[in-house]
Amino acid sequence: MSREAAFIQSLRAIARHPAARNLDDDCAVLELGSETLILTHDMMVEGTHYLPTATHGADMADVAWKLVATNLSDLAAKGAQPLGVLVGHMLGTGDDRFAEGLAEVLARYDVPLLGGDTVSGSGPKSHGLTAIGRATHTPVPARSGARPGDAVWVTGTLGRAMLGYEALRNGTAADSSAYRRPVPLLAEGRALAPRVTAMMDVSDGLLLDAFRMAQASGVAIALDSASVPLAAPSRPLDCMTWGDDYELLFTLPPDTSPPVPATRIGIVEPQGFAPLFLDGEPLVNPEGLGYAHNS
Amino acid sequence: MSREAAFIQSLRAIARHPAARNLDDDCAVLELGSETLILTHDMMVEGTHYLPTATHGADMADVAWKLVATNLSDLAAKGAQPLGVLVGHMLGTGDDRFAEGLAEVLARYDVPLLGGDTVSGSGPKSHGLTAIGRATHTPVPARSGARPGDAVWVTGTLGRAMLGYEALRNGTAADSSAYRRPVPLLAEGRALAPRVTAMMDVSDGLLLDAFRMAQASGVAIALDSASVPLAAPSRPLDCMTWGDDYELLFTLPPDTSPPVPATRIGIVEPQGFAPLFLDGEPLVNPEGLGYAHNS
Question: ipTM of this model?
Fold first, then answer.
């Protein structure tokens, strides 16, 4: 067991409140009075989650955008309406650009900045963001609701963030915005929430995230790679494992159509000897299926 | 203007929602249905907020305790009941102790762990914590409610964290727990909330925090140093500027007694040429009054 897996295991032993969902989901789901709160927190670290400012000149406005957008994507997967964010920021080069990117993304999605903390530190910078939302539909969609017979759907095209990253890394003229400025699918998530049996965002790669959905639901998911919309059709496995696309992966009862543009990419089957099948081939081990680090 | 002050100023321009309280308060206060949410986020950075693990052998259980306790102290100053926390943790030496300290402090105050994020990084570690609470009394106490004629009160004894830090740094046998394991005054804050005109926790030093309360309230605060309970009576200024004590500083209408043990240390006067007077001497400049960095 990796150091991270061991640590998360010890946190699970603490997080016994049902709102924590055993730390298996993207968000906490907390009942409060007549409302249901949706809470999520993600960190980004220089050199781990973004190219270092000093050596690669990462635009801190993009870092702020992505920090907010990835957390809003977690809310989107719950069909939640964002209520606000709290930001934890380590001061450093590009603070003015960070503030500009923060202002941009919050204005774009009409989300209030509620508070946070600013700290000094040496070494690589880190940044935390907490997003708070309210459920627009209960029961709140979870990863764990997929049922045999359901169809598996995904929004958008996979691999766009990968191509954007490669453009940025290689300094080509190609558009890198899909990597730098992901779009949280808030409206789509809200439209889907009342209909889906399970939903999550594709943050760590389609195969790994589908694997996790199957495990959480106690089913098998069978994907048909030929039907998956790919940004780089010649590199299907890269597109399905790279992650960072923030599309929505969801299951619907058979004969139900999604209320938003999406592609049917597979079916849910009873639990078998593997959680995931790709074109009939069983995938037993999550290692190598995606960006496991960020789980 | 320092880099931090400039950055916070640019955040204030974004944080226009009334729940953010212009980023002048310890917490955001967000109305939601019939409830009022109290939200706060603080970060701790190795080498800035705690002695480095490698060179000083900081016990990561203490770091986890303090990370939670300082955020719960912010909730205490609002009279809030904690609903849960989200933790952002950078992996490193002492993760097992961090998890143990987290379990201890959350069990001690009966607060659920709701979720969070675990990341890898190089260099000094950083940790973020978001605490969510619900108001037990509205209007929620703010820093800004002190009125001329009110009395100024503080719980406990100031300077205990300073003595604890010195014991730890110097490796003496003296008790360092006040520094390592501060106690959030949740019950006291709840008892006080319906009676106070203003309240905050003393995180950055009595003088600096009283200065801020006076500024936020548009009044002057006159403190009588002889009445301030000091852990090191021979070093009154050190005790009143060092911070980290997490006592509650509050104002009450004249002739009102506090419902918890506390000491009357001064009075509120109309706004004059200084926000703060210590034994009649005006203190105009917040620099040097306390631990401004952590604001």
Answer: 0.92
